[in-house]
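We read letters as residues; the fold follows as tokens. A sample entry reads:
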Amino acid sequence: MAVVFEDTLKKNIAKEPCGVYLLFGEDGFLKKTYADKISKKVAEPDDIFNYSKFTGECDLQDVYDAVMQIPFMGDKKYIELLDYDFEHCSKTDLDKLCDLITEAPDSAVFVIRFDSVETDSKKSSKFKKLLSAVDKAGGLAVDLDHRKMPELIKMLVDGAAKRGTVMEQSAARYLIETAGDDINTLKNELIKLCAFSGN
């Protein structure tokens, strides 16, 4: 199973979302952002019929029922499973999850997202099993790690410009070096700096 990165995901969701997405990696902001973008193409969170979100403590049967249910007043249904602890679940539950991934109908967009559950795509046999199921389903397994320095600098410079302020590239680099490469932290610091600087 080939793991893809942010660029491939961007191109994919610009068109029609595919059936299954497995979002993992170090950057929580990117994982949530892309899950939200996929959701917006399918169903809004206030759509009680076509939008379902489950956390790790859920019963997989409830997730299965939501995925298999026919969309109501729409073409597709959005289902998200957040932080299911696949490493510590029983073999039966892991098999159920893999079966659910491979059996997801075309009318469902099923997003599995890991924020606090750690994943290791190289060493974990259970994670490799999930990757294999996503591959078999024709879905995307996306590694969303922190962006590189040039991308972060561009994001900060462009973000400042949108707020009517100028940020030099050297200042953006310094902010990244001092605050770290987490996008959420950088955006919060940028908002504070722009508010402080005014026009």
